[in-house]
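Trying the structure run again after the queue cleared.
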Amino acid sequence: MTSNDVASLLLRLSERDLAVLESLRAHRLLGTAQIRRLHFAEGHATVTAASGATMRVLTRLESHGLVARLTRRIGGVRSGSSGIVWQLAATGERLLRTVHGEKKRRRYVEPSLAFTAHTLAVAELAVQLHEIAGAGAVEVLGVETEPSCWRSFVNPHGTLEWLKPDLYVITASGDYEDHWFFEADRATEHPTVVVRKAKTYQRYAATGAHQARHGLFPAVSWVVPDTARRRALEAALSADTGVQPELFRVVTVDEFRGLILGDHADPPPKGSGPP
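Done. Tokens:
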């Protein structure tokens, strides 16, 4: 895609069009309703009107080869347009790659059902953060998605290791700034997998790299589907003597908003984490 092609295409796109494309670039997959909540929440009398506007814009972007819908719908055909999942198409990927000055091409293929479900679950946390910030409850200073939120470090054995959170978020409320690592858990993995991930967080915390840069270590929270899963993960984290359970939180999706707002029953302290 030449600079002239980019310039010509950009002239045909609105700021909201570009914002939709950037959201798909950041989150990889988004459902129609998630795109509506991110970019069409204002200026419409009803949710139905906003949903119609969302589909009109997405269909137009699709006609230009900028976005593509997945073959499989979440919730089946009866879910209607709300069940459609979107990703960048080839032209959209090339456009944003050129705009951002990137050379490495990202290939977009039909993902597996498991990947789709997890990616949408992570995106849902980001969408809820957007909505919480929009209500003026807290300020969201930054959201890093995968792989930008991944961190490399040298572990105690002297080998390079990667910590791969689902999201890294910085929020602010009053005079306080909170840092968060989030894991979107779908109850598809054995609790021992979560315990191993918790120990990876501890090894990363032990390097002091994040603390040296930001003055604190992020609160680490698993967001799970229901209370049964929460109890299972809390029990697993507490039972392993190699885990410092006070460094981690497990909340349900229904408790996520309360966690961010600080009114969860057991919220992490401000600037939580190992020193």
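Strands lie at 30-31, 67-69, 85-88, 139-145, 151-154, 160-163, 167-173, 176-184, 219-224, 248-252. Worth checking whether this holds up in the mutant runs.
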